[in-house]
Write a structure and sequence with these properties.
mainly alpha; single chain; globular
Length: 265
């Protein structure tokens, strides 16, 4: 059992970002920021309602989300694979996307089912069946526990082959004895993302309100807020994606090797 070191992962992350920030940022802009902006604009144009009559908008939002996940895989591949090109890393991200999604569904489908019942109830808790309410109380801590144990599914998908069952088993094995460290890492990421994105959204909303006439509908103000908030989100996500890849390298016994992003294509 390998013990994860957050401090070493952070040192490796800083070195990687310092050395290869230009290419990593370019991939993040293309596959994290841009899809996020498109998704925001589509939702603004439809008033945020993904109703049946706006199925086209829902498809665009879904595609944007898939592009973001593929982009994260590409970033991890660049960090983990010495000598791979940017183009091959992006290709790997799309090739490994189905296996990653299937691996996530293998362990998350019961929670998605419970969540769908809660969404149907909307804001009226009286519409939630007692059984579903009880299951949701039990499911929440279980989801947190399993989510941390499955933290290595995504970097494993980027760093090695294998189907969804292999990825789930691999993550379960690698995270054994490291739950609290990885939980602290996930909590730090969530809080950082919340604070940074909230600050960027607040500042850009004030600017849009004062200079661009507000943030209603499909407008320049919405574009400004989306661009700044998505850029802030991508910046935080990039740091933590690289760090997650470095943690995976530690737990797989590959942390000693020098990892470099290629400077071609």
């Amino acid at each position: 059992m390998v013990r994860a070191s957050l401090s070493k992962a952070w040192d490796d992350t800083r070195a990687t970002l310092s050395r290869d920030s230009r290419l990593l940022v370019s991939v993040a802009l293309a596959l994290l920021v841009l899809p996020g902006i498109v998704s925001d604009l589509v939702r603004a144009a439809t008033g945020g309602q993904m109703a049946p009559q706006s199925s086209g908008a829902a498809i665009v939002v879904l595609v944007a989300l898939l592009l973001t996940v593929a982009g994260q895989l590409a970033l991890m591949s660049l960090v983990l694979h010495r000598g791979s090109s940017v183009g091959s890393a992006i290709g790997l991200g799309f090739r490994r996307l189905p296996s990653l999604l299937a691996a996530w569904l293998l362990w998350a489908w019961p929670f998605l089912l419970i969540g769908s019942f809660l969404l149907r109830a909307g804001n009226d808790p009286t519409k939630i069946p007692p059984t579903v309410a009880l299951l949701s109380l039990i499911a929440f801590p279980l989801f947190i526990f399993l989510g941390v144990r499955m933290a290595m599914v995504q970097p494993a998908a980027a760093g090695e082959g294998g189907g969804p069952i292999h990825l789930v088993k691999r993550s379960w094995s690698m995270t054994r004895g490291n739950w609290f460290r990885l939980f602290a890492f996930a909590l730090l990421y969530g809080l950082s993302l919340l604070v940074v994105v909230a600050a960027a959204t607040a500042v850009s909303s004030v600017i849009a309100q004062l200079a661009l006439g507000g943030v209603k509908g499909f407008s320049v103000g919405v574009l400004l807020v989306s661009t700044l908030s998505q850029s802030a989100s991508a910046a935080v996500t990039l740091i933590f994606v690289v760090m997650l890849a470095r943690l995976y390298a530690q737990l797989s016994g590959e942390a000693g090797g020098e990892v470099s992003v290629p400077h071609t294509r």
